[in-house]
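Notes continue from the previous slide.

Worked example: a multi-chain complex. Inputs as given:
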Amino acid sequence: MTNIPKKADILFSAYSVEPYQILKDAMKRKKEDIIQELLDSGLRGRGGAGFPTGMKWKFGAAEKADQKYVICNADEGEPGTFKDKKLLTDVPRKTISGMAICAYVTGATKGFIYLRAEYRYLLASLEKEIEVFEQKAKEFGLDFEIKIFMGAGAYVCGEETALIESMEGKRGEPRNKPPYPIQNGYLGKPTIVNNVETLASVSMVCRLGAEEYKKLGTSDQKGSKLFSISGDSPKEGVHELELGMKVSDFVTEYGDGDTKAIQVGGVAGYCIPRKKFESTIIGEGQTTGGSTLIFNSTRSMYRVLHNYLDFYAEESCGQCTPCRVGCQQLLKGIEAVKAGTKPPKYLDQLMKLSNTMNLTSKCGLGQSVTNSFTTIVENFREEMIF
Amino acid sequence: MTKTNELVKKLVEEHGVARESLLPVLQGIVKEERYLSKEAMRDVAEQLDISAAEVYGTASFFSFLDTEEKGKYIIRVCKSITCDMKGKCELVRTMEDILKIKVGQTTVGKRFSLLETNCIGLCDQGPAMLINDDYYTKLTPVKVREILGDLIRKTS
Ligand SMILES: Cc1cc2nc3c(=O)[nH]c(=O)nc-3n(C[C@H](O)[C@H](O)[C@H](O)COP(=O)(O)O)c2cc1C
Ligand code: SF4
Ligand code: FES
């Protein structure tokens, strides 16, 4: 039986309630109540790591410091992801209002939107929106200013500590964690970093209340979420869906009838082959980045994997050896197997290498290479060899 | 004072001399001069009171902070997965033909630089590219010829 994936319509719905009204209402509530509401809603970060947002804000509020910062992460560099751009284009006030609610709850007085260089064409309209916001903030008596910080072209700067390093004028090399930005962030001060969609979702939780919001999604993943769909699909674009749907239903709705595999969570995520469509649920236990690439049977999975590894080898910041050397070795390795200069069982050694990278790399970039590498090599072994 | 000196001075006045002003200052230079010359980097180092090596080290990390001279139009063709599936290779060949340069190079008259870049968030409308800050989607060789033709006419 197939079910049509349940479409939600809250993040992109026109401003049924003016987002700054949501902010105004939020400011009448106790800070702890808002944190509790977020905890109850089950909202998790939409930037990839899936950390519970209420928890992050609770820690942020508890920090004692003369200055705290809120950063909206709009670096969106994961291949196949473009939902944050759409939010900032269509409904920017939902995200800005989420930032302001965060400021109110945690006591931060300065905020930044870290916008990737590739989205510079959004700058002018966002600056106008910030002017509108600053009027409102004055009106509501909220001491919070927002600036836009332009990225300079580096995927790894989406990682929150690398992002902070780059804002401080340094190479975007991830830091060791702990300490987390929440304790020691921008200029050494407590900093709450949230994804664009997370912040927009906060506005929605505040508007609907945790109870309503929770009705969407499954036990593990609450609410609705944006999916950036691209590849062999007649319905490419951003779609807002409830979490917890079966891959088979997803493919029926968004595939082209000939889908052989999908990649969820972007290049850092997992490849799911046709034989597992029935038994896999999107959203549970996977990265929440929200990119879904669809491949039909004309696609060579060797070429797909080669493209991913090329991406990793280029974007690795080079700071730690397992990732810097590992990415290149994996790339050379699959080329050698394909060319026949290494035997097929060399693929097993490469998979071991990717596992070692997972254990020993410093940041999520090097750690996640194994996700796509293993799921593609295991499921499409023949394509790697012949 | 050269034009570069003046630009750096103006940018430092605008953003301040703290280390966290480095990226905004460098971005401001690239916006005007399209790349960071040695002179510009040395000047920034002096103004921010850090070593020129630090400035170069930081700049070289970022793909939008070029340290080599670039053309008036910087073309960045997306080479990531969806655009690759949708025919990015043919586009690159077409542009190499028209501009008579390879990926990574700049035309002799410094009008065009042809670069490949990773996903620019236009996958649902791929293949896609950026020329300076503007984006172009659903590209075909025919479309690319038109776009480049327009720019060539505009600058000759
Ligand atoms: C290599 C790498 C790239 C990342 N890129 C992004 C990004 O583009 N946008 C984003 O919001 N989070 C990104 N993240 C996750 C951030 O580190 C961080 O977890 C997130 O911004 C926190 O926000 P959230 O809790 O709202 O998800 C990336 C992580 C890694 C390891
Ligand atoms: S894992 Fe890769 S990207 Fe992350 S710090 Fe190490 S070298 Fe840099
Ligand atoms: S893959 Fe080309 S824009 Fe994303």
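Summary box: Chain B has a mean pLDDT of 97. Residues A 156, 174, 316-320, 323-324, 361-363, 365-366 surround iron/sulfur cluster (ligand 2) (CB under 6 Å).
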